[in-house]
Design goal:
The chain has eleven helices and twelve strands. It has 281 residues and is of the alpha/beta class. Helix 2 packs across helix 3 (54-64) and helix 2 (11-23) crosses helix 4.
Length: 281
């Protein structure tokens, strides 16, 4: 699970790149405003949402103008209502407007991820299943979106290709079978989790016999998931995957699988509708 502390060192560079692509050689529209004009800006959410991205917003305003001050009314993980004030910002009118779009881009995207994560998490409340994200993230925002997933009450799968094995059909074919792939994985990186994706009950048994730590049930029927839970109990963890929707989520959770992975948490998120209004001092 990514924590706030885990991603702090990544934020300055991400913000730097966002500002470079937005500001370029300079904000020519903001230059219409007198340099000494001060203002207060109010940012609200136009919809109910779960907030994520506070630290990215802070870094945007800091990089644009360290003298700008922000007064947050909420924090990451908070559920906000429509028209609720998220924060106030004060300082140079020019610089407030220059920082606006990059700051809101981070906040609306990460809050969108957190909001859809909460939507899914609520649907399995009361079950023991953990909902996992995937690597289907926006390029350059892998760590940010995975952190946002946790703000919404879901969990992280592996972060990338480096921290855990996920052996799929193409790996299995290239390695010469499930057992060969698992044996090689355990030999190459002892101690790292080994997960195998299976498509049939026979492949499930092969993965169990090979010593896989986690087995991904790809597009299994509910009946086969329940059978798999009985067979794998005490031997390996089970993860359901493939065409998961808000309608199938609860029945899958009730089969007893340990995890459900959902690409939609990060790839189908809709940015939260935010608004910033300037109030001249």
């Amino acid at each position: 699970m990514l924590t706030r502390a885990d991603i702090q060192h990544l934020i300055p560079e991400a913000v730097k790149k966002a500002l470079q692509e937005d500001i370029g050689s300079g904000d020519i529209t903001a230059q219409l405003i007198p340099t000494d004009q001060m203002a207060t800006a109010r940012v609200i959410s136009r919809q109910e949402a779960v907030i994520s991205g506070v630290d990215w917003v802070n870094e945007v305003f800091r990089q644009v103008d360290p003298s700008l001050t922000l007064d947050w009314q909420v924090d990451d993980g908070d559920l906000v209502e429509r028209d609720q004030v998220l924060f106030w910002a004060k300082g140079s009118a020019r610089n407030l407007l220059t920082a606006e779009r990059a700051a809101l881009n981070f906040l609306q995207t990460l809050s969108g991820t957190a909001t859809v994560s909460k939507l899914y998490a609520d649907k399995v409340a009361g079950t023991s299943v953990k909902l996992l994200d995937t690597r289907k993230t926006l390029p350059g925002l892998r760590f940010a979106q995975k952190y946002a997933v946790t703000c919404g009450g879901c969990y992280n799968h592996r972060i990338g290709l480096f921290d855990a094995f996920l052996i799929k059909e193409n790996h299995i074919m290239a390695c010469g079978g499930i057992k060969a792939a698992v044996d090689t994985a355990k030999n190459n990186e002892p101690g790292k989790p080994v997960e195998v994706e299976v498509e049939t009950m026979d492949e499930l048994q092969q993965a169990l016999d090979a010593g896989a730590d986690i087995i991904m049930l790809d597009n299994f029927s509910l009946e086969d998931m329940r059978r798999s839970v009985e067979i794998a109990r005490g031997i390996a963890k089970l993860e359901a995957s493939g065409n998961i929707t808000d309608k199938t989520l609860r029945p899958i959770a009730e089969t007893g699988v340990d995890y459900i992975s959902i690409g939609a948490l990060t790839k189908h998120c809709q940015a939260v509708d935010l608004s910033m209004r300037l109030i001249e001092n």
